[in-house]
């Protein structure tokens, strides 16, 4: 149902965001991220430009070139508009500048790479993360183009790092702009965290809640070789951070473990699939071990003898296949996005908004 309601474009962005490598872990870690995506030739009704904002992996704001307005995607964001009546108009205006810059940059890069007209993609990710200790902070900004990492910002050296020969042109251009890199550093070390704190305050009932996972284990017997496939489903938990794995005789067991992935549910919680293939004679040696902040203590679920194996295989196979397909999709998207992170567009400032600025939106590659 949820899949039908959301365009595949947005689902891709969600998967990329939730699977993005983070600098710290734990239920008390918090992050704010914005993903900008532009394509040169949209088709099948896809927007040419999309911006999605996330706090702790939850979509809270959204813009696309069809609506041309930055809009709330979380109920608690209504509080922002009440306290700051110009918030949505200001951010919409800023995003318009970025949309135009993306259009120009796509043409610049197409010519720089001597490419023909057609479908080309440009993405930008900017954000910050506050670790569980409340002290460790990380800010990041990166661009990607056409399956290649393009350019990233190093706030320690106040320089842009070109990760593609063609990006050296952009690196020299941006490093030469007076004050640009200092403003980026200020945003990534100060402004981003100020807004993250505001959003956590607005959405604390949702973002700071804890919901324990429901855990079920099901199995089936493979008729051909007599092996058993068991799937441990962990569902409905929040926050996203969870530790789940198979154990054998009390020790972590990675061998014969099927691919796994954490993915969002429509209600903002998360689910997790974990499969394993074993010899039925050793069933009693295995457990599905789950740790989460919503649980008073870790869970260890034993594997039960498969029942109704004639009628259950379809269900279990479906679960395993779904898990494998999801992981495959996520892995493919991650590889695609990793290669795709392109140079930065501009510099947010503290008095303009959480994600963009009037001055920066005119900065081109």
From TrEMBL:
UniProt cross-references to Pfam families, sorted A to Z: C1-set, MHC_I
Keyword set, alphabetical order: Disulfide bond, Glycoprotein, Immunity, Membrane, MHC I, Signal, Transmembrane, Transmembrane helix
Polar residues: compositionally biased ranges: 344-365
Subcellular location: Membrane
Signal peptide boundaries: 1-19
Domain of life of the native organism: Eukaryota
Primary localization: membrane
GO biological process, any: antigen processing and presentation of peptide antigen via MHC class I
Chain residue ranges for the region called Disordered: 343-365
Residue ranges occupied by any Ig-like domain in the UniProt entry: 212-302
GO CC terms of this entry: external side of plasma membrane; extracellular space; MHC class I protein complex
Gene3D superfamilies on file: Immunoglobulins, MHC class I-like antigen recognition-like
InterPro entries for the chain: Ig-like_dom, Ig-like_dom_sf, Ig-like_fold, Ig/MHC_CS, Ig_C1-set, MHC_class-I_related, MHC_I-like_Ag-recog, MHC_I-like_Ag-recog_sf
Annotated TM spans: 315-337
Membrane topology: Single-pass type I membrane protein
Family under the similarity heading: Belongs to the MHC class I family.
Record's protein name: Ig-like domain-containing protein
Organism: Laticauda laticaudata (Blue-ringed sea krait)
Classification of source organism: Eukaryota, Metazoa, Chordata, Craniata, Vertebrata
